[in-house]
Design a protein that fits this description.
Elements lengths: L5 H14 L5 H13 L3 H6 L7 H15 L4 H5 L1 E4 L2 E4 L12 H14 L5 E5 L5 H9 L4 E6 L2 H14 L4 E6 L11 E6 L14 H6 L13 H13 E10 L5 H10 L3 E6 L5 E7 L1
Parallel strand pairs: 3-4, 3-6, 4-5, 6-7
Antiparallel strand pairs: 1-2, 7-9, 8-9
Length: 284
């Protein structure tokens, strides 16, 4: 029996994923085939006429089967690019979204305006560390602290710290929001908290609903529970001339502004590249 060739296998896998209704079937097939062949996606095209061994074909079929069932590519390969960095991810953490890069960009811009040479930065709900470690990687100096209620998420964040920011002043703590920290001041407090209303969880895509951690998605009855909790304690931890920046859902800007306005903070809104309200910035 003739061996399958790389190009043929890629086309068959793409058709399979398309028939399963999976998003971006060609891209997913390319990424998974590149992982199987231990090469970059461009290299896959350079090897189109090469035969693929039976053991590798078996491995690739298993990856495609998992993707066909709905498992996200990032969980299958165990990593996701964010802010031009490659982060390890597991089903214990939310997969980083491109729109969250707006949060990082906003914080970096505000830090420059703040003119603090070595900012103290807290990320409440750090997940795999994408936001905090992107900031640490981008800044020459600073103290970077992450907190997450999930020990599994903190373990992933620590793995990413070793890979991306070894030598920087980065630490992680397990606990709910500010609870693990003695009262101390930070120049910057950031968070991408859960903000999906509980009633809307069942309306999320199958890939999100069945695979990503509910604790990182469920924002309570109206999606605003985390913002209320942060607003309660923000004044204890935010330095007088500091700021806080939080990611929000597309229709939550006014509600979140109201919560923090009532707590004595002035607010500004930053939009993402799609023109959606994405980040609320708070100052005293």
């Amino acid at each position: 029996m003739d061996e399958r060739r790389v190009g043929e296998v890629l086309l068959l896998a793409t058709d399979y994923l398309r028939n399963k209704g999976r998003e971006s079937p060609r891209l997913a097939a390319e990424i998974l085939l590149a992982r199987t062949l231990n090469c970059g996606r461009i290299r896959v095209y350079m090897r189109f006429e090469d035969p693929i061994s039976e053991p590798l074909l078996t491995q690739f079929r298993e990856l495609i089967r998992r993707r066909g069932e709905g498992e996200p590519v990032a969980y299958i390969i165990g990593e996701k690019e964010f802010f031009s960095l490659r982060f390890a991810v597991t089903p214990a953490v939310l997969i980083p979204r491109p729109e969250t890069e707006t949060l990082v960009e906003t914080v970096l811009r505000e830090i420059r305006a703040l003119r603090v040479r070595s900012p103290r930065i807290l990320d409440a709900g750090v997940g795999p560390g994408t936001v905090l470690l992107s900031l640490a990687h981008s800044l020459d100096k600073g103290r970077f602290v992450g907190v997450d209620v999930s020990p599994e998420a903190v373990a992933v964040a620590e793995r990413n710290r070793r890979a991306l920011c070894d030598g920087k002043d980065v630490s992680f703590h397990v606990g709910n929001w500010f609870e693990p920290l003695p009262e101390q001041e930070f120049d910057v407090i950031v968070s991408n908290p859960p903000y999906i209303p509980t009633y809307a969880l069942n309306g999320l895509s199958e890939e999100i609903r069945n695979y990503e951690p509910v604790v990182a998605l469920d924002g309570g009855a109206d999606g605003l529970d985390a913002y209320r909790k942060i607003a309660e304690d923000l004044g204890k931890y935010l330095a007088g001339n500091g700021f806080s920046a939080l990611e929000i859902g597309a229709d939550q800007a006014e509600s979140v502004r109201g919560i923090f306005g009532a707590a004595g903070f002035g607010t500004e809104i930053a939009k993402d590249l799609g023109g959606q309200d994405r980040v609320v910035v708070m100052r005293r």
